[in-house]
């Protein structure tokens, strides 16, 4: 007989574990199912983000940034050294230690909140029953008054570039190279491609990124994308636009393996030979095998579970959140959906504002934005005004030897309400939240312009950009 719970959560990634913990805080009896195992073969909570995504990639980005700065910035500070070396094994070990710390932290939170964890693959049956095939081969059945599906997403594999986890890898493989590849090709100039491409470029790899689209970072504001592309070019990160890969071939054996990548651009068919190929063309909802017949839960043509604005599937007591539903595949979007659904189940208000979800690419310089781009405002016929300001005019950025980039603020031409904040530069992953907060409170560019910002700080760039909207910036010619 199935054990009864108030809430059964399938998936312990960012969306799932937030939903489970918040539901438990609200006094509900909660079970959470997760299939993932860590590198040690033991259960590891936290999903893709924590195990092989957001967290480990940031660890490698920081390690590689330290190494890069030694050779490119430290000299400006008068710091000299001899024969700097990177021990890749130590770097990867540090990353793994951080991952283990945080996966263990979630397990502790589950225990403290009296959440029952099941380790294995959960499948939703009719009647809100979840069948769990555990790692030891045994099966258990759980019945939830409410079931929250938070199955996450998987890397998209290309038919002509199948993962072999040696020469052709996804983001997981690119986090665990045992040595710096001499030549690395990346298919896709999105978040994953740019971040992991940057890691190995900084450590000495010759990196080429092949992007099928004719525009760089089409989702970002055009001015920000141009400024970022300029900096990446200076760093030697080669990005080929309009480059459509049609074929890959792995040659050689062992450490002598190479990948011949065939692609077509505006000049015709070309090929390049690399040691490693990272395929980073996006992710897909991990819903295969998740739903038994007769559940009533609908899946769209992209494999995503169909939900309404409140993450309800239309089946009584069944909800879905995170990467396996519509909207951006971002951990923090999943966080908010998980909390909102738990609160809705408990009879409280629950809401996620999709208009104020920030986006961040953790390259050097960082890229971040929230709200509408200038091209979106034009396409939608929204009257707008713009204020910009360069980090090169910010004393703190120059003192840090990080003057690259800019801030761009977009406001409604009639109401002055902030429509979007777009940034490229040092530390903008933190600065973007000024825009998030302002937009959440329906604030104006003038509100930001009249808020005192400490000097000298990087945040002054936002202050000056806000002042520039009404052509009263102090530190630039309006």
TrEMBL record:
It is an enzyme of class 1 (oxidoreductase). One of its GO terms (molecular function) is dihydrolipoyl dehydrogenase (NADH) activity. GO terms for cellular component: cytoplasm. It comes from the Bacteria. This is Dihydrolipoyl dehydrogenase. Keywords: Cytoplasm, Disulfide bond, FAD, Flavoprotein, NAD, Nucleotide-binding, Oxidoreductase, Redox-active center. Residues 357-465 form the Pyridine nucleotide-disulphide oxidoreductase dimerisation domain. The active site is at 455 (proton acceptor). It is found in: Cytoplasm. It holds the Pfam family Pyr_redox_dim. SUPFAM superfamilies: FAD/NAD(P)-binding domain (SSF51905), FAD/NAD-linked reductases, dimerisation (C-terminal) domain (SSF55424). Its EC number is 1.8.1.4. Binds 1 FAD per subunit. InterPro entries: Class-I_Pyr_Nuc-Dis_Oxidored (IPR050151), FAD/NAD-bd_sf (IPR036188), FAD/NAD-binding_dom (IPR023753), FAD/NAD-linked_Rdtase_dimer_sf (IPR016156), Lipoamide_DH (IPR006258), Pyr_nuc-diS_OxRdtase (IPR001100), Pyr_nucl-diS_OxRdtase_dimer (IPR004099), Pyr_OxRdtase_I_AS (IPR012999). FAD binds at residues 58, 122, 323, 329-332. The active site is a redox-active disulfide bond. Residues 5-338 form the FAD/NAD(P)-binding domain. The keyword Nucleotide-binding applies. NAD(+) binds at residues 188-195, 211, 282. Disulfide bonds join 49-54. It catalyses: N(6)-[(R)-dihydrolipoyl]-L-lysyl-[protein] + NAD(+) = N(6)-[(R)-lipoyl]-L-lysyl-[protein] + NADH + H(+). One of its GO terms (biological process) is 2-oxoglutarate metabolic process. Its cofactor is FAD. Its main location: cytoplasm. Belongs to the class-I pyridine nucleotide-disulfide oxidoreductase family.
């Amino acid at each position: 007989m199935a054990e009864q719970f108030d809430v059964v959560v399938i998936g312990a990634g960012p969306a799932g574990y937030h939903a489970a913990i918040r539901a438990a805080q609200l006094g509900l009896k909660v079970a959470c199912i997760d299939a993932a195992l860590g590198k040690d073969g033991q259960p590891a909570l936290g999903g893709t983000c924590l195990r092989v995504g957001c967290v480990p990639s940031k660890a490698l980005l920081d390690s590689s940034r330290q190494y890069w700065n030694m050779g490119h910035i430290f000299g400006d500070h008068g710091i000299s050294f001899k024969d700097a070396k990177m021990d890749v094994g130590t770097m990867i070990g540090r990353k793994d230690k951080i991952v283990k710390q945080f996966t263990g932290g979630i397990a502790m939170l589950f225990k403290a909140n009296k959440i029952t964890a099941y380790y294995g693959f959960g499948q939703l049956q009719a009647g809100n029953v979840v069948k769990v095939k555990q790692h030891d081969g045994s099966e258990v059945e759980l019945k939830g008054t409410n079931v929250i599906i938070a199955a996450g997403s998987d890397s998209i594999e290309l038919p002509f570039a199948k993962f072999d986890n040696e020469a052709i890898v996804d983001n997981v493989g690119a986090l665990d190279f045992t040595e710096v590849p001499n030549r690395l090709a990346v298919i896709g100039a999105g978040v994953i491609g740019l971040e992991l491409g940057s890691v190995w470029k900084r450590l000495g790899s010759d990196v080429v990124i092949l992007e099928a689209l004719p525009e760089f970072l089409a989702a970002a504001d055009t001015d920000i994308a141009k400024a970022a592309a300029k900096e990446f070019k200076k760093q030697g990160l080669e990005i080929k636009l309009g480059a459509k890969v049609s074929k890959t071939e792995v040659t050689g054996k062992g450490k002598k393996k190479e990948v011949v990548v065939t692609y077509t651009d505006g000049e015709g068919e070309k090929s390049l030979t690399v040691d490693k190929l990272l395929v980073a063309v996006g992710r897909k909802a991990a819903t295969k095998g998740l739903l038994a017949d007769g559940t009533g839960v609908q899946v769209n043509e992209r494999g995503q579970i169909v939900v309404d604005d409140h993450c309800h599937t239309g089946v009584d007591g069944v909800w879905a959140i995170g990467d396996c539903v519509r909207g951006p595949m971002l951990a923090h979007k999943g966080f908010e959906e998980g909390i909102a659904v738990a609160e809705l189940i408990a009879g409280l208000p629950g809401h996620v504002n999709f208009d104020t979800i920030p986006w961040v690419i953790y390259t050097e310089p960082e890229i971040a934005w929230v709200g509408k781009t200038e091209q979106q405002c034009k396409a939608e016929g929204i009257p707008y005004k713009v204020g910009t300001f360069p980090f090169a005019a910010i004393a703190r950025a120059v003192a840090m030897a990080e003057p690259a980039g800019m801030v761009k603020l977009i406001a409604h031409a009639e109401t002055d309400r902030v429509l979007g904040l777009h940034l490229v530069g040092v530390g903008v992953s933190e600065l973007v939240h000024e825009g998030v907060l302002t937009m959440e409170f329906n604030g104006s560019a003038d509100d930001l312009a009249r808020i005192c910002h400490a000097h000298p700080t990087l945040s002054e760039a936002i202050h000056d950009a806000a002042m520039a909207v009404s052509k009263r910036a102090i530190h630039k010619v309006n």
